[in-house]
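Exam revision sheet. Question 4 asks you to relate a sequence to its structure. Input first:
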Amino acid sequence: MTLRRQILAAGLCGLLSLPPAVAQQAGIAPQAPDANVLLRPYLPQTVPPVRLGNSPRLADLIKAGQLYLSLDDAIALALENNIDLEIARYSPIAAALRVTRAEAGGALPGVPSGASQAGSVASGQGVLGSQAAAGVSGGGGAGAISRGTGNAAITQIGPITQNLDPTIQQTSTFGHRTIPQSNAVQSRTAALVQDQRNFTTTVQQGLLSGGNVSFSFRANDLKENSPSNILNPSVATSLTLTLQHNLLQGIGRAVNGRNITVSRINLRTAPLTFKNQVIAVVNSVLNAYYALVGAVDDVRAKRSALETAEQFLKDSQRRVEIGTLAGADLIPAESQAAAARRDLVISETALSQNELRLKSLLSRNGIAEPLLAAARVIPTDRLSLPEREDLPPIEAMVATAMANRGDIALRKASLESAEVSALGTRSALLPRLVGFASTSQQGLAGTPRANGSGPDPYFIGGLGTAMGQSLRRNFPSVNGGAFFQAPLGNRQASADQAIDQLQLRQSQLSVQKDVNQVQVDLMNAVVAIEQARARYQAAAKNRELAALLLDAEQKKFQLGSSTPFDVVQQQRSLTAAHASETAALVAYRDARTGLEQALGTTLEAHNVSIEKAAEGR
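Answer key, structure tokens:
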């Protein structure tokens, strides 16, 4: 025991003296513990705290309490600060860790009971071991090992989730037993007293092909009070190599590695998932920015309408004062001024709401950021319409969409994962046939009794003598066998396999449905652009005509051939025409955004790098 303590102390000192490895430096990725390579797997990793601060770009763009914002700056701020993107950045890291988890295999096998270790002795060792070797048992024989079990210990039969990381297991047990002897012929004592120390070390490795192999070393130290023992104290050693493998159900790397394959597929598609999230954020920014620009234009138009209405009211009041206009004719002008003031308030409220919506996309803590909450957003880009549409043929757009759409790629990857997972239910249809084999080498040595007949000199010695016998295979044992199990009818496995295949067929049809929907989405997007263009052209023409009619009506009013009511009607028509033109422009930009989304070219159209988005720069 003193030697074992010295070895253990030396080993711990060696572990503690190893130089610590450099911890991984990453923004949000888990950091390995700052420890040597042997201790590191058993220490928790550290995940950095969440990043709630905004990028310096936000403060740089705010001048004198105003956030002057172009569309490109809005997209850049969202890529750096949007909290949905920050959440999405964790997914690829988690996917990589899930691959590592899958490659490690399943749960570890159970740990042997310490009580059973303490109550067992090797065959031929001591009184109880001699009785076990002879096929008989004496008092307290519960601790003896039946000869029929040999040296094979098959604890798991059939397909199991293998542990693919090599596992080392060490069990040390210490026991003191006093066993009354009703028949003292062999023990020659009324009470057999034993001191036991059992040490077992096992190294086990799971096989991806569907089995596991283990190598174990066991040493049993025994000291008894029986005068009949030839060796006392004694040590028995055993070296055992065991192989167990599935031969029908659960055989093959494809079946046992399906979780690894699915995890790798998920890792491969993790960038696509992140890309879809980036596209969603960019689309939200585009819609919010153009809505804000439209709201700014609408406020400008409503303010101009209010100024026009107030000026007309003043002109009408002067005419009443000089007697060229009846007092009752002021009512339409006053009504129009009040309505224009109301419309301006509504428009300014809508502007504030759109501004708040855009701010929430540009900051990780929303309007809780004091600098952003107090700033007014001034969009520097204007709504515009290209002179003509230069759209490729629908066939070319479908090909572009199929090559760029991340959701279609994710659907196909999900189908691939389902096909891989179906290997499990297919394998479960087979009966369970497990082959196992083991070989062991025994050794026994000890101190001879002080008086009486001496033992064979070959067994005199200590742990080294017993280990030498085991290594030389002086006392070998070989065992092998097979386990077979087949449920009659096999209805559960058959139903599971059929259900799995039906769900797989549904997934295949869903993928084809999504592929068919791509063309429908593109055609709808093209129609939406054409309608928005026609709507804008009509609204722009209507606004021009309304402005001309208002100007003509005002001139007629100046000449006395028109009434305030007619002028007010033209003012209202012009205000409505301005609102329709702005709404048509916003609708056109939304339609263009929808077409880019249907094509999967949103990021390319706005010069967004997915690598920079992943880094948050």
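Marking note for examiners. Residues 491-559 form the longest helix (69 residues).
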